[in-house]
Amino acid sequence: MEQEVIESEMILPTHLRFKKVQMHEKYPKGQARGRHWKHLKQIIQAENYQNYPADEPNYVNIESPPSMHPRKQICDITGFEAPYSDPRTHLRYANTEVFKVIRSLPNEYVQRYLALRNAAVVLK
Amino acid sequence: MAPPISELAFGVDVAFSYKYNQQLGICNGNGLAVCSGFTTSHVIPFINGEPVYEACCRTNVGGYHVTDYLKQLLSLKYPHHMQRLTWEKVEDLKMEHCYITQDYASEVRLFQKGTKEAEEKTRCWQLPWTPTPVEEPPSEEEIARKAALKERQGQRLREMAEAKRSSKINELENELKGLEFLIQQLRHVNENDIPAFLAETGYVSKQEIESAIIKTSQSLRKAKGEQDEIEEKPEISNSEKYTLIDIPDNMLTPEQVKEKKRQLFLKTTSEGRQRAKQKRFEEELERERRNKEDEQRRLENPELYMEQLRVKYKDLSEKVEQRKRLKTNGNENNNVSGGVGRGERLNAAQKERMRLLTTAAFDRGKGEDTFGIKDEDWQLYKKMSKDNDDEDEGPNEDEAELARVASKLREIDPSFFPKSDASSSGTEPSRFHPLTKEDFQILIGVERFRCPEILFHPNLIGIEQVGLDEMAGVSIQRLQPKSQSLEESNSLTNSILITGGSCLFPGISERLEAGIRMIRPSGTPIRVLIASDAVFDAWLGAASFASTMHFQRQVFNKTDYYEKGEDWLRRYQLKCMSLARHGRRKTGFGTSTKGSNWNWNRNRNHKNIRI
């Protein structure tokens, strides 16, 4: 059985009485990949939303637009208002003490802080 | 035997939730449903009790993001306790402690100033911690016992050493006696019989016996602890030792020349040693003298002296620091690029070398090659070679002086604390002092309202979409072309229902009201209502819908599926969604939970229908 199915046994009982064909009969143990579980991105892509009329609401076009308000800049470490930004690490900081902390941070932590606001350098 | 499920219907949880609350009389027919779920947040306007999906909007921020943000922030703040910060625990922390502020900027300023109010708002999570047992100083009795034991052991060792020594002395004396006896006997023996006589004893000649006597007596003296003066001897015989040195080479045989060379070498080394000894002695004297002077000055005016020393220490340490800095990143001014690249890790000399190498590498074929015309050109290779690094300078004079001053200061000034030690202990204090209660605390201050703030400002976590308050505005705006009347939009804002798990943060309704008031024209009536059961009312709404009479007409059954196929199903839902809020028939286990809102996708339907 697939990993997902095994894990889902926590919520799904193995034997469902209303089913004519039980899960374990359909996908016996050892048989590879009976069913593919798609994730959201795949489903959206398969749906071809661009082919649907634009005035009809669907998953893609109900997304909200970017904000019109001036964006808030907060210190990445402390959460205070951040007037400054460090050119080396690209982290925003509130004052000199935080700056000292930033400069002593190892690169891994800098990247994790940046990843929090989706600004980390992603190597592909 | 459970009945087989032959029909089903799909619905939007926000709609169920709104209808359920409308049934309870909490919200009106016209209104806005603001739902903040686990992974997404939705706003759906309702007109005459029907959702208007054309005007709804979704932002991909929800409770999941709040928890994740909190988890990441805390584990970055407390890397040592990362294991403690499990998802479940952080979710608990979020539910128990997070709140939404009316104004983020002013609230955070409280914390920045470190006011008492902020201190009260900071929550502390004390992790389980057992203090390391303090070692009790051993009692007097214990000390005495240990000392006695040690003394006994020492005594035994001493006795053993003494016994060994006396036995050795005894042995040596016996040997000496034997040898002397041998010599005496030799005197009586005939000159010709000596070899035969000695053959029995193992010695070859009389001289050998004599030298053996000397050796034995020397070691005997040593064993008895007498001072032997052998060390002095070679120095006395200096002139005899190096007999060949003053004789010119051409008067000597080849062996003698070799010998002469050896002697020369020996002489120079020993002289060098002598000189070094002399120098050390002089330095010692000099230091003594300086110390004495210092002492005198200190006695004359202790405070002035200390002050002078401090100033000197400061100057020197600055000087040394600067030199170090220069060495590690040469010309800081040129380094505007600010990258954490390779360049910054090299010191000045290494950088210069890299520069030379790169220019040499890329210089080919650029104009005329004039390299080598001038002699200086060849110096380049010298600079390039690695040996040229002045790494092995060793501690220079300043550093030595600094160490001296520091040691002096440490002696006389109790408040003195060497700088380098201070800086190194400052970065890792945990290594030096034992862990205290405070090291096992997780403080949650700003995080308490920083994390839920992302619901209103998703750009804080890099999601470029509007927050909850603006979403309401967007939704009303999307509705505008359909209904122009101001009254209608006023009636919308007069009944804003917030539902979904993430609306349980304290302060959310006030904040949402303030946010929407900023967007809407002044004088607009705004009423924010909290759902009766924010987490389960979608399910309750679906259940109550499924039990109504007209539910039978809304369902989709197996025949429909075989007749019309899955595409039809999708269109059916979009068209009929506003007419009906569906539920699963005879549901024992629920409809969608909060968050998985638009569960109308084809795949999902497919799966369910195949049942």
From TrEMBL, chain A:
Q: Which segments constitute the Vps72/YL1 C-terminal domain?
A: 73-102
Q: Where in the cell is it found?
A: Nucleus
One GO BP on record is:
chromatin remodeling
Q: What domain of life?
A: Eukaryota
Q: Which InterPro entries match?
A: INO80C/Ies6, Vps72/YL1_C
**Pfam families noted in UniProt:** YL1_C
Name a GO CC annotation attached to this entry: Ino80 complex
* Keyword set, alphabetical order: Nucleus, Transcription, Transcription regulation
What is this protein called in UniProt? Answer: Vps72/YL1 C-terminal domain-containing protein
Taxonomic classification, please? Answer: Eukaryota, Viridiplantae, Streptophyta, Embryophyta, Tracheophyta
TrEMBL record, chain B:
What SUPFAM superfamilies has UniProt attached to this entry? Answer: Actin-like ATPase domain
Q: State the signal peptide span.
A: none
User: What residue spans carry the region label Disordered?
Assistant: 266-299, 323-344, 587-611
State the source organism's domain of life.
Eukaryota
Q: Where is the composition biased (Basic and acidic residues)?
A: 270-299
Q: What protein family does this chain belong to? A: Belongs to the actin family. ARP5 subfamily.
What is the official name of this protein in its record?
Actin-related protein 5
Q: What is the lineage of its organism?
A: Eukaryota, Viridiplantae, Streptophyta, Embryophyta, Tracheophyta
